[in-house]
Amino acid sequence: MARQFFESPARRASLWLFAFALTGVVLTLLYHDAEQQDSAYHFLFARWAAVHPVYFVSVWARPLFTLVYWLPSQFGYPAAKLFTVLLSLVTGWQTFRLAQQINFQRAELAVPLLFLQPAFFAISSAVMTETLFALLFVIALRLHLRGWTKAGMLVASLLILVRPEGFFIGALWGVWTLRIADCGLRVPKNNLTSFSNAPVTRSFSIRNPQSAIRILLLASGMVVWWLAACLLTGDKLWIVHDWPSDWQMGSRANGIGPIWWYAALLPLIVGVPLIVPFMAGLWRLLRQREFVCGTSAFLTLFVLHSVMFTRGWFGSAGYARYFVCVSPAIALITLAGWNALAEGRARFFDSMKPAVAALALTASALTCFGYIDGIRFTRDARAVDWMHAWLLTNHSEFSESNVASKSGLISSQAYTRILLDRDPWERPSFSGNHDHNLELIRQAPTRTLALWDDETGPKWFGLRAEDFEAAGYERLMSQDFILEGWFVRLPWNHWGGPRHQRMHWFYKTGTEPRL
Questions:
Q1: What is the mean pLDDT of residues 367-372?
Q2: At a CB cut-off of 8 Å and minimum separation 6, what does 39 contact?
Q3: pTM for this one?
Q4: Beta bridge partners of residue 500, listed in sequence order
């Protein structure tokens, strides 16, 4: 009876999803913030979007992401993080269904091969834009490969409303629609049982006016964004005027790196134990011209991000999480390699298959847990929680019911603003210039509360604790922290090592600042 139950690929996929649902809950409980502050800021923009509707059309906040997360964010940060877990689970199911749709064997393995990508795993319980992008990407891909090209283009047009990569994927989608018959898949429209059939002959020529007009559907999301921005702001060039200053051509705002940077990050993009099947799958699919949509999407982002980070264009920061956008494609490329290796060594895998699979997936899971636990910034939330509890215990005037009446809040970490439920609109417009930022805290009104740390504050804003005292702030308290991982505890002062952090509460009393 049990054997018959597990014979169904859908049931096996569901069991994988159940395991990762529990994992997502555990991650939410263990890590109160995320690996970067972007998660907290996206939550704040979504939570306060009804108060400041421009967040619904903001370039940085991302319109569709803010709209989708607006309701979950009203129930708090953990609820929004659990909503991301839900989106990740739906993405996993859709990836499994896509694997079935294109007749990949062992389709249920698409679920763990998605979640056990370290970059995906790390933000599968954070409030980041890449997970929503991945979900829309795989849904649009399924529609496209079923022959529902118009519906696929409409969904793909929404990608630009979630992340900038949507522009490049949208352009690539136009190429697929105009020049490639079902993206090169050897799967006829009405027969999804074998790769041995001849390629579909349905294609669109760029000489066909109807095809050219049809691909304008890929711009529909951008048109909706522009119309919404005009209605909300009255500014026809709102998107241009709201464009972040560090997203300029050649800005180098987040540094630069070598051209092979993302090749070196493949262990975080794909997973250390899964690099071999991924490379095998990529080679096989390219050679046989199968699943061209997936391989071309991955390679497009790989080349573009490599060039942008090398040149310092558009604030590209060299993060592995950018590839979560096409993580369903990465999972299926890896699955293709997994199947190819199994077929090439069938005699070995017949006897050792369960042990090899268990070993590879277990090693991948340990890598993912080690990766997220070794990220030192994720631990700062524990220190902020402690500072928040100290404030409410020792200063009753800052109780939850009274804190909203205070004049302002300045913090080096956005998570502080979440705990105190403060409007991000009141955040000073800090830059990387020390003098500019010092003048901003001097101009802040009296009764302004500030939580500052000795790592993020000086690194990003050039301000130290002494600057607040010089600007007329009273130091309420300071606390040193040695923050270690829950599981990874290495001795050095790098990834996995202890996080030495010092945090300070300040309060502006109205005393004349020291000159």
A1: 93
A2: 33, 123, 126, 127, 128
A3: 0.90
A4: 482
